[in-house]
Design goal:
This protein is of the alpha+beta class and 744 residues long. It has 4 domains: 238 residues, glycosyl hydrolase (family 31) (Immunoglobulin-like, Sandwich); 309 residues, TIM Barrel (Alpha-Beta Barrel); 73 residues, Sandwich (Immunoglobulin-like), CATH 2.60.40; 104 residues, Golgi alpha-mannosidase II (Immunoglobulin-like).
């Protein structure tokens, strides 16, 4: 579009604006806010949601807002806003603050409810180009004049606080157009094409600002006043979608393998887990579940005998019967999927229909890759997947889907539609090698790709996972033990111990490496790994309740210390220890030798299952045997722990242990449902809220909800780790109750 055309659009639109002063003649009111003509652009200041503003810019009068896979369905509740004027600027004000712009010079700013600038005045950008928006400049760190340091962009760097980024997906890489600034706001950028996302660069002349680069002719900046990372997480989930609660089994240990040899190999492995009392909830299968030979060496046109939607009978001669039998022993089925087709006949049809990536003139990807964004392709894929879902597949492992930025989104959408058709009401669970904003609302998890089996990679893994938590994906993991290479018994043990405190706990290896089966690494490692797995299963009632909290609020399970302790400068970029929920601090060994330092933030703490209090704001030297994990709990915590079980199908498996770490009043809500279906969304859920009154030593509880399944805990064991003595009591979880647990 030529510049003269763009200018004429704005001038014509301006003719219908206010017949008032010259200062307001370029401003028009619409349902969501204000529309302003500035130079050759149309700018909209809008109230997008309760705590979210939208700054939209269009070179060609494109309707706003831009449709995007990044965004959840629009909020149907109207947001109250009003027009405000301030020092030559005009804008909108909501209960969250105000977004302002000067129609004469293009300066804009974001202010909080007190009128303090979160983003000071900056000119929107230089619009000399006729086909793309060149820039939108956003100030950062203005309050304290600090250099750029933002959170939540994904894993583009090996740090929590990030100073520069691009936007891309790759093998185990997900960098997204979002961040939270210490200045007190968060921002998500949306372009006209999700596969060409915006990115930002640090200011060259101003170390306190950054510039967003937008491909295309329109841009949306979603601006969220957020004083803390936790506030930002809540707003970001409201904007991009809340993650559903995963099935309960997904919180157990998941054993992945490339190289399952045959049916006997599978069943011998299952027997070994049971015989050695190693808890496990799923086997994850690579290529071999559906083909006897990987498709890497296939010709461009595929082969007539390649099966994309069938079973390798060497492993699964009777898939429905086998999957049911394994599930009766607690083992769920997760199978790998690739975003391409190997069957020659199917490929011919796909290319005829132009369902392969590249057919619409975009980048020339591998010719066998399929375009899940095409509704026709999705319908074909769903119909071809019918027998797989009906056989009882519990989840999918989606690999190598980085051909476009949104491949994983549309791939998961296809699998969700298939689940809704063939097993309605069941929860979808997938594991993906990257993600884009919004993928979390489809029940997706992600892993960090093909990593090496080294101490350096183990040390770097928590940083990546925490960055993904801050980027809006609450369920993430890695190839525990590493994909390439063979870990020593110590390395595998320490990696599994760290994995106890990952949202998803899954080990894996390349086909030529030693499987990550614990019994293959010696007796000492086996015993230590068993102890770690037992702890993981004891923590599932806590993790599952956190998952419900995450689904409702958007606050992730795995949290950097800076999320809970924003004023402690020592934890601003700390990622070698982290929190699960608000209270459980994990400081696993990430280096060899059995020693590390551990930092406890402000407040009082306890070593896990100890009645010895520890003072915060101090660093201690820690020595841990091979079977020990440094773990700490905040004073004023009720920590629910289940019994040791071999798989989640055995829930409850015994009484619930309520560990009380005194020093402050405490509250915790235990969530229970069937762990499998989406019925919890309709209210089939049981909430038990426990309250600890520290002054009186009383524990009380109330129950609400109508879920009454056999997996509900009926009995409890309360333990108070009082500094004077350890206090215990048993009881029954009636509708409500009260018990005194004060020391003698």
């Amino acid at each position: 579009m030529k510049l003269s055309k763009i200018l004429s659009i704005c001038l014509l639109a301006a003719a219908g604006f206010f017949k008032a002063t010259a200062a307001t003649q370029n401003v028009q009111t619409n349902a969501n806010g204000l529309s302003i003509c500035y130079e050759n652009t149309r700018v909209e200041l809008a109230a997008a949601d309760t705590n979210i503003f939208r700054l939209s810019i269009s070179l060609d009068n494109t309707p706003q807002p831009i449709a995007s896979t990044f965004l959840a369905d629009a909020n149907t509740n109207a947001v109250k806003w009003q027009t405000v004027k301030h020092h030559g600027m005009i804008g909108i004000q909501t209960a969250a603050g105000r977004l302002l712009m000067n129609p004469k010079n293009g300066e804009w700013s974001l202010e909080d409810t007190n009128g303090e600038a979160l983003i000071p005045r900056h000119v929107i950008g230089d619009f000399t180009t006729t086909n793309e928006i060149s820039s939108i400049t956003v100030a950062f760190g203005w309050k304290k004049r600090t250099p750029i340091s933002v959170y939540g962009c994904g894993n583009g760097v090996n740090a929590l606080a990030q100073t520069n980024t691009t936007t891309r997906v790759a093998n185990g890489v997900a960098v997204i157009p979002y961040y939270w600034s210490k200045s007190g706001y968060a921002v998500l950028a949306v372009t006209t094409n999700d596969n060409r996302p915006a990115h930002w660069v640090a200011g060259t002349n101003d170390a306190h600002s950054l510039t967003w680069i937008f491909p295309g002719t329109s841009a949306d900046l979603y601006l969220m006043p957020a004083a803390t990372l936790k506030d930002a997480a809540k707003d970001y989930a409201q904007l991009t979608g809340h993650a559903p609660v995963p099935p309960r089994w997904a919180f157990g240990y998941l054993q992945s393998r490339w190289g399952w040899e045959n049916r006997a190999y599978i069943e011998n492995t299952l027997t070994q887990f049971a015989k050695l009392k190693l808890p496990v909830d799923a086997f994850i299968y690579d290529f071999e579940w559906y083909t006897r030979k990987p498709d890497y060496s296939l010709p461009a046109n595929g082969t007539p005998d390649f099966n994309d939607f069938s079973w390798n009978t060497n492993l699964f001669p009777n898939p429905p019967q086998q999957i049911k039998a394994y599930k009766n022993q607690g083992i769920h089925f997760i199978g790998i999927r690739k975003p391409r087709i190997g069957n020659a006949t199917a490929l011919t049809m796909i290319r005829t229909e132009q369902w392969n990536l590249g057919a619409d003139g975009r980048e020339k990807f591998e010719s066998r890759d399929i375009n899940f964004a095409n509704p026709g392709l999705r319908e074909w894929y769903i119909s071809r997947s019918a027998d797989l879902f009906k056989a009882g597949v519990d989840g999918w492992w989606n690999d190598e889907g980085e051909a476009s930025y949104t491949t994983y989104y549309y791939w998961n959408l296809t699998e969700q539609e298939a689940m809704d058709r063939y097993r309605p009401g069941e929860r979808l669970w997938t594991l993906n090698r990257a993600f884009s904003p919004g993928l979390q609302r489809l029940g997706a998890a992600a892993w960090t790709g093909d990593i090496k089996s080294t101490w350096a990679v183990l040390s770097a893994t928590p940083t990546c996972l925490l960055n993904w938590s801050l980027a809006g994906l609450p369920y993430e993991t890695c190839d525990i033990g590493g994909f390439n290479g063979n870990p020593s018994p110590e390395l595998l043990t320490r990696w599994i111990q760290a994995g106890v405190f990952f949202p998803v706990m899954r080990s894996h290896s390349e086909i030529r490496e030693t499987p990550r089966f614990p019994w293959l690494y010696g007796t000492n490692a086996l015993d230590a790994i068993r102890k770690a797995l037992d702890l993981r299963y004891r923590l599932i009632p806590y993790y599952y309740s956190l998952a419900h909290e995450t689904s409702e609020t958007g606050v992730p399970l795995m949290r950097p210390l800076v999320m809970e302790f924003p004023h402690d400068t020592k934890v601003a970029d700390m990622s070698d220890e982290w929190l699960m929920g608000p209270s459980l601090l994990a400081a696993p060994l990430l280096q060899s030798g059995g020693k590390r330092t551990a930092y406890l933030p402000e407040g009082d703490w306890y070593a896990f299952e100890s009645n010895t209090p520890l003072k915060g704001k101090q660093t201690t030297n820690v020595t841990a045997r091979l079977d020990e994990i440094p773990v700490y709990v905040r004073a004023g915590t009720i920590l629910p722990l289940g019994p040791i079980i071999q798989h989640t199908s055995q829930t409850p498996g015994g009484p619930l242990q309520l560990e009380i770490y005194p020093g402050k009043d405490a509250t915790f809500t235990l969530f229970e449902d069937d762990g499998r279906t989406t019925n919890y969304l309709g209210g089939k859920i049981l909430r038990t809220t426990f309250k600890w009154q520290d002054a009186t030593g009383q524990l009380s509880w109330t129950r609400t909800g109508n879920y009454k399944g056999g997996n509900v805990f009926q009995k409890y064991q309360a333990v108070v780790f009082d500094p004077r003595e350890k206090i215990q009591a048993n009881g029954v979880l009636t509708t409500n109750g009260l018990i005194t647990l004060a020391p003698k």
